[in-house]
Amino acid sequence: MKLKKIPTTALVIFFCSMLGWTAQAADLSGTLKKIKNDKVIVLGYRESSVPWSYIDSSTNKVVGYSHETALLIVDAIKQELGLPDLQVREIPITAQNRISLIQNGSIDLECNGTTNTAERRRQVALSDTFAITQTQLLTKKSSGVHDMSDLAGKTVVVTAGSTSERYMRTYVQQKHMDTNIVSAKDHSQAFLMLQSDRAAAFFMDRDVLSALLLKARDAADYVVTGRPQTKEALACMLRKDDPQFKALVDKTIAAMQTSGKAEKMYNRWFMSPIPPKGDVLNAPLSDAMRELYAHPNDRSFDE
């Protein structure tokens, strides 16, 4: 039998394509290599950080603006690695353990309400900013607390492990205020302490405070008040010194923002009814967020 001769050009194209695929596979490093080998990505999520990342009690699934961002990054990873059936595992985390879980490899990506700061960048890597917020006080209207100066002689609650906790402790120390600061394990516990009068105020991101009021039966008794204290650049967190993975994450976030997809997502979570009860935050897109969407970046506000 006479063998059919394969054109030299076809052979060259075949071997070049194979070499290209092999090189691409060999070039993988860090988190992408780990995901490719394990065929699974592990996401860290927050259980009660409405509307960023929280459990929808009607479906028992994780939802939210930042969690949706994480899932879009997962889609980009599937395409990049050629893994359409990539398994997604989700692990609940807290503000206290999120950094250590990234560092020890327990989770691969965390997109919740983590603020990009210089201190954190010494421990982990932070993506392009996906949202910008500010910190304020949540108080009972009858508390007499209208601004930070009114906290003298009172108790304020903060979420443990948050930048808000660090800022409040520094503020009280620098102002020589006799303010008692207590740390709650999460936002829900902090709000419960405020409701039960164990604290006169809760200091946290304005979006989180507004979202907590949506679920409160006595919401009319409270007010988000005081001059904003800090500007927060919220970002996804990943392992340090992994430029390949960070580049993919940043590219995905930037594409969301410049294409208009991020604004549609924002309106869905901040201006429309959200699960489980169809509450509406009614928080219009800020000028700072519009600027971010037009010019994606990974800058923090403490530089």
TrEMBL record:
Pfam families: SBP_bac_3. SUPFAM superfamilies: Periplasmic binding protein-like II (SSF53850). One of its GO terms (biological process) is amino acid transport. Keywords: Signal, Transport. Residues 40-273 form the Solute-binding protein family 3/N-terminal domain. Residues 1-25 form the signal peptide. It comes from the Bacteria. GO terms for cellular component: extracellular region; outer membrane-bounded periplasmic space. InterPro entries: Bact_solute-bind_prot3, Solute-binding_3/MltF_N. This is Transporter substrate-binding domain-containing protein. Belongs to the bacterial solute-binding protein 3 family. The keyword Signal applies.
